[in-house]
Each structure stands twice: as C-alpha cells, then as structure tokens.
Design a protein that fits this description.
single chain, mainly alpha, Rna Polymerase Sigma Factor, Chain: A, Arc Repressor Mutant, subunit A, 2 domains, 8 helices, 0% strand, disordered N terminus
Amino acid sequence: MRRKEEYTAEAFERRCGPYAPMVYRHCLHMLRHPQEAEDAAQESMLRAFRAFDTLTGDGVATWLFRIAHNTCLDILKSARMRRQQPMPEGWEETADPAPTPDEQYARKAAKEALWQAVARLKPEQQLLLELYYGQQMNYSDMAAATGIAEGTLKSRLSRAREALKSLLQAEEK
C-alpha cells in the first residue's frame, strides 16, 4: 500500500500526465466536437485525480481510458449532446506532403465515407475499432478497458471489421 504522501498532484502528474493526449483523443472520438472533448478530457482527469488513491498496479492507461469513456457516456446521455455533430476535419492524421488537389479530394471523400460507415455501426463496434485502430491498444489492454473477455473481444472486433467492410462495399455499388 502506498503512503498518503504518494497521492500528491506531482505523483498524479508523473503517472497520469503522459496519457492526457490519449484521453483527449478518445473523448474527441466519442463526442465528435473539439470543445466538448476538451471539457470531457479535463473532467476525466479531474475524476481520475479524485480517485487516484484507488489506482493499483501499472494499468494507468486502461484506468484513465475507462474513466474517460464513462465521462463521455455521461455527456452523451445529457440533453445538450442529443444533436448530431460532424467529425472535425483533420483531427486523426496529417496529410502527406504536397498531394495534388485530386488526391486531396479523393482522400477526403474516402475518409468521409469511412466515418459515415463507422457512424452506422453499433456503438460497441465503433468503440472496439477506435481502441484497436485509433488508440492502437493491444487485445489485453482492450479487454481490461472494456471488461470484455479477450477471446470474445477478438470475435466482436472481427465482426465489427466485417460489418464495416459490408457497409463500405454497399456504398461502392
């Protein structure tokens, strides 16, 4: 058991601070609005600080992810987030150097089609795809973050990929 003085702001910053960008990215993925995501990330870190003495082991990223996820779910349930908001442009990656305008248009159209298809998936499928591809979590971290058994998680992720593939193929026709 850690001593009381180990639950300081400095200790929290040292252990949890490096994961703040991950918390923000997950909030942005869930809320699809930069200002709401920033507020949710701050609220998540505040909740984490208040519960810092409950953190055991080295699973800081998983612990913070779970707090951020629950914070976002709370926000999504609130009345102020019932409206649909588009995904902000350019948040997930930067463009390759000097693409032609045609290439830029094709990439933008492909990303938009992908986001629209992902948005039509079940929320759990969206989450699993975000964790694996967006947050680049491994299966064991994903299992810890979601509470889903690793074998079950693998099969659900596979079904999410297949559902996404089907949606994208249907749009091409």
